[in-house]
Amino acid sequence: MTSPVRFERHDDVLVIISDSPPVNALGAGVRDGLNEGVSMGINDPAIKAMVIRCDGKTFFAGADITEFGKPPKGASLQDVIVMMDSSEKPIVAAIHGTALGGGCEVALACHYRVAVPSAVMGLPEVKLGLLPGAGGTQRLPRIVGVKAAIEMVAIGDPIPAKKAAEVGLVDRVVGEDSLEADAIAFAREIADKKPIPRVRDKTVAPDPQAVEEFKKKHGRRMRGFDAPAANIACVVAASELPFDEGLKFERTEFVKLMEGTQSAAQRHLFFAERQAAKIDDVDPKTTQLRPINKVGVIGAGTMGGGISMNFLSAGIAVTIVEMQQDALDRGTGVMRKNYEASAAKGRIKPDAPEKAMGLLTPTLSLDDLADCDLIIEAVYENMDVKKELFTKLDAIAKPGAILASNTSYLNVDEIAAVTKRPEDVVGMHFFSPANVMRLLEVVRGEKTAKDVLATVMALAKKIKKVAVVAGVCHGFIGNRMLSPRQIEANKLLMEGATPQQIDKVHTDFGMPMGPFQMADLAGVDIGWHRDPSRIESIRDALAAEGRWGQKKGAGYYDYDEKRNATPSPRALEIIEEFRAKSNLPKREITDQEIVERTLYPMVNEGALILEEGKAQRASDVDVVWIMGYGWPVYRGGPMFWAQNEVGLKKVVEGLEKHKFKVAESLKTAAESGSALK
Ligand code: 3HC
């Protein structure tokens, strides 16, 4: 096999070039090539300095994640880095694109770094449940100090070249289009400079205050994760231990994380997210996408406004329709306020609100949607209302326009059937707040055209969503799996558990909230028949008493004016009364039973969804639950958790113990030890 690394001599400078698409990951071939190139440079008397650069869209974007967990092959990254570091001839890293993880570590082991203005550098390993395992935690703080290093390794966000130059990570920002020439010229400038600067020779002062402040500020987002603390410990070690001992500490911590379940889960999510974008029977290379330059959104409420913001932020014009002027004004006012709040917090550029709002056309007339390439309705969740609207849209929309419903439960085929163009109809289920939540369920109707599906999936990426294809079924993937959880949680209340106990099991598991905290947030009155004399469930009883959740200061919990929850004696009384009426005995419920009865049925439902072909793959189900419902990232999603943390056999046993009808595919996979597909 030919090496992905080639060497070019420019008189006394050897340029070592990696060409390993798509991201120049540091796989065995690349490491071997680097090894060979650097040895060649060291041993050739005609060479005075070396430049390492990459072809394609980026400098090394990190270790090759697909190699993790497999037997090691070729030169190790650590060995290559030691050789580079100790070279008596200076090496210059010439950076473009994203120098991430192991790629950033290669750059740090070089003696100099030059970068184009658009480059970014970072150590994002923490996002994979890991830490930089090739000296990054020891070298980075020696350049940028403990405080900045902790920010970079424990959060994992990259920094742009300009900032990198300010903090000393980059020695020179060079021309965007002249990286190689500028890097060679730079190499000649420094070729004879002695001593050669090596990061390992520097020291860094401890900064316990910065460590404490970071932990205080970010404690909440790090809750449950192992990797951030390990990253911080390594940076602290860099400030306390000699370089080689620090490296050993880093290695031990790296191996611990690599062998743990959290990193496996987070790496699973990395690939799952990318896999989700792929449609099994649609070839992106041969599918012509429909151009989407203008989007129509019907409904200027919370959902419609949030949906519109996604497109406006991506520079796509939006026409937004409401029925009444005051509702339209209110909706667009909220959008403007949201943008302005983001600008005030420095999350977007100061002129971004004007730019985005300048792309918005508010109107009261559906006819104004005639020139839209995609129309998304976000109106009341009612089949008759949607059918009426789609009938009208069919008459208004131009040929080839995509007609989408933001329904969260309804049958997209039934909606499509009222039009003469069911092939142009698709579901686009956004999650609230739609301008923030990253998940988009793209519902593929029976007749949805392949190019429509492919266009919507590509558009999702453009508006920075993670899109998952779902088939038509009640609640699609996410809400369908939510349903058995809610049903069981309610049954458990009847049998003697409290809302606090059930919610705590879920939050201890890592969910942002439990079923009853969620009900209080969404509104206990949602779906209530509004007849106080008809009390058929605890929820009815709460709703009938005006305990509609957070908005009323009372629901399953009591709330103060800042919406802080406390257990509610009245809600517990209502639960007791309701249980007494039903003549159900009260018993002690264990936390384990709550797990088995609320989480295992979700896995079962996920398996049914896969059996019915309503999701393309098990990892898509995981993406939905992580991105849309806050399933803890470090547990990899319900299907990954069931297979890798609990074990399918145990899940099946738990379901059978509690008399659930177990999905056939789940039983088979548990018996055969195979994976759910
Ligand atoms: N290893 C293996 N494959 C990788 C990879 C990596 N480090 N990074 C990306 N890929 C693959 C993706 O899976 C995807 O494959 P696909 O086309 O088959 O789905 C393809 O490359 C393109 O990736 P993206 O779709 O993500 O492309 P983008 O252009 O949107 O983003 C990127 C590029 C910013 C580089 C992004 O891919 C990324 O963030 N990659 C991971 C970076 C990272 O985490 N590096 C650290 C790795 S761990 C490490 O280095 C340990 C070390 O300390 C020892």
Description:
With 677 residues, the protein is α/β, with parallel strands linked by helices. Helix content is 48%, strand content 12%. It has 26 helices and 19 strands. The chain is globular, with a radius of gyration of 28 Å. 3-hydroxybutanoyl-coenzyme A binds at residues 22-23, 25, 58, 61-66, 77, 98, 100-102, 105, 124-125, 128, 130, 132-134, 136, 271, 274. Pathway: Lipid metabolism; fatty acid beta-oxidation. This is Fatty acid oxidation complex subunit alpha. One of its GO terms (molecular function) is enoyl-CoA hydratase activity.
Under CATH, the homologous superfamily of the largest domain reads 2-enoyl-CoA Hydratase, Chain A, domain 1
Order of strands across the biggest sheet?
A: 12-11-10-13-14-15-16-17
Provide the low-confidence segments as ranges: none
Q: How helix-rich are the residues, as a percent range?
A: 40-55%
Strand content: 5-15%
Quaternary organisation of the protein chains: single chain
| Total number of helices | 26
Q: Per the principal axes of the C-alpha atoms, what is the gross shape?
A: globular
CATH class of the largest domain: Alpha Beta
Q: Which CATH architecture of the largest domain would you pick?
A: Alpha-Beta Complex
Radius of gyration: 28 Å
Biggest pleated-sheet summary: 8 strands, mixed
Can you list the ligands bound to this structure? 3-hydroxybutanoyl-coenzyme A
